[in-house]
Amino acid sequence: MRKILAFLFLVIFSFHYAQEAEGVEAVSSETVNLNEGSERIISFHANIDVDKNSGLNVTEKIKVHSLGDKIKRGIFRSLPLTRNLNNTTQKVQYSVVSVKKNGVDEDFHEEYEDGFLKIYVGNKDVILSPGDYDYEIQYTTEKQIGFFPKYDELYWNVNGNEWDFPVDSISARINLPQGAGILQNSCYKGAYGATSQDCLANVLSENSIEWSAKDLGSGEGLTVAVGFEKGVMIPPPPPTFLERFGILIAGIIVFLGLVIYYISTWRKYGVDPEKPTVYPQFNSPDDLSPASLGFINSETFKNNYLTAALVNLAVKGYIQIIETEDPGVFGLFKSKKFTVKKLKNPDQKLPVEEINLMNNLFTTIETVNFDGQYNSSIEQTVKSFQSSLTYQHDKLLNEGNNTNKLYLPLILMTVVYGLGLFLSFKIFPEFEKVIVGVIVYVFLLVCFLITGYLFKVFPVLFKIFLIIPTTILIILGGLMLNHNEFTIDNNFNICYIFIVLGFTSLIIYQFLIRRPSEEKLKKKSLIDGFKM
Predict the structure, then answer these.
(1) Domain extent for 330
(2) By 3-state DSSP, what share of the chain in percent is helix, strand and coil, each rounded to 5?
(3) Which CB contacts under 8 angstroms, 24+ apart, belong to 108-112?
(4) Each residue of 9-49: pLDDT tens digit?
């Protein structure tokens, strides 16, 4: 009897232990399965309620499987900011109502990126543990119905094509207003532009329909369309006159104002005096040195002016220039070397710049070699020589440049352009076009500043440089002509054209508003006569 009881006890204990072991194995298996596979969307369901004003109330329920790879803190949902409706590109605005995770309100923030409103769901300080999470995003949007001659239609991309994960199953239900009899429907599954109809439709009632599909790959979406009776929806008002043409009209008015300013100020300050007649001159005008003659004539500094000053000093007997030749290796790579030797100290008979040159050239030495090698003291001498010429003649050369007349149009253009970009963004929110606008402005501003220098140094290059804004203007005009009609997204192009025209006109005005003084013209005519 005792043996029988012992046997039964052993059987019961073994059975109980087996159950415990099996239970432990099941938990372990569940834990392993939780971390197996890849991150994905397990299910995506959108419930879309349509109101009579063409607005939508969308509730999306998204169940995801996270491994902490790309889904670390949460998910993000991308909603396009533009769409083509009724043969026109229209902006789309959204208002997020609520965001939840596992039935509890969740942190989120919104950003505009690459033509999308991106709703980032999750807390930056909270890292998700691997597992399954249920998200719910509710938002509203307006002006989503297309109006056609025989029917009205809602065409909707259910989940978008911005997901980096496969989707196991997806469904969408559209609830139309009462009386909107469904006439037709269709659905498309796949990447953007796909025409595959591997999806199912189920008409629930005369105003409600549901679609479903399975096994969507990364970047694939479900797009649905339902056509229904006309007369139920109230068509949204088209873009207002000011939304379509306000920026264009304002740009034209401001540009015409700039032209009036240019003409009036040019007639008052920019008309050049009559140039004096040039007669042969046999002596240097006003006893100017060769360096000063060249500086005044070209209105800029050139290194050969220093060479002219050295030759002039040698002619006057203050220095001696000795030329020697380095034979190089085997007669190859010959080079010339110039030695400048001081013969006597400078005095007040010399021009200021030549006194400056000798004092800087012969500070502690009596001989200086010019052999083509870099010499910091010679570099400093050249800079000091240039500063001396600039100090003496800068007032004469810049008198009548009227640079101050450029400030008002430049400031006005900048303010109006910035305001135009801001209003264009408010009407048609595409941040990328704002960035393009800023780049265009900076580029044109640099061109404007460079032309001020080219005007003085290289007059021919100044004219060639005008080709750049003209080319930009032609390109922008071509972009606008590609539009079948004038739409609100053209407001950005209007801004671009305005600033290109503005800077082009300002560059030309910068050239015209300069009025040389009579003294400058007289001195230049004497220099021209001396060159004869």
Answers:
(1) 300-395
(2) 45, 25, 30
(3) 108/74, 112/81, 112/429, 112/431
(4) 444 444 343 343 333 333 333 333 444 568 999 999 999 99
Three-state SS for 358?
Answer: helix
Q: What is the mean pLDDT of the chain?
A: 82
Please write the tens of the pLDDT for every residue from 299-336. Answer: 888 888 888 888 888 888 888 888 887 766 555 566 77
What distances in angstroms separate CA 70 from CA 73, 130, 220, one per listed residue?
9, 11, 17
Specify the range with the lowest mean pLDDT, choosing from 105-114, 179-188, 261-270, 396-405: 396-405
**181 with 65, same domain?**
yes
Are 382 and 439 within one domain? no
CA distance 393 to 353: 11
Q: Looking at the domain assignment, is residue 14 inside a domain?
A: no
What distance in Å separates the CA atoms of residue 297 and residue 370, rounded to the nearest whole number?
27
Angle between helices 290-298 and 518-531 (to 10 degrees): 120
Same domain for 428 and 326, yes or no, is no
> Does the structure show a pLDDT above 50 at 208?
yes
pTM above 0.70, yes or no: no
Q: Using CA atoms, how far apart are residues 293 and 437, in angstroms rounded to an integer?
A: 45
Residue among 415, 405, 472 nearest 254 (CA) = 415
In a shared domain, residues 203 and 264: no
- Residue 483 DSSP one-character state: S
Closest CA to 228 of 175, 170, 189: 175
| Residue 258: both structure tokens together | 């700039």
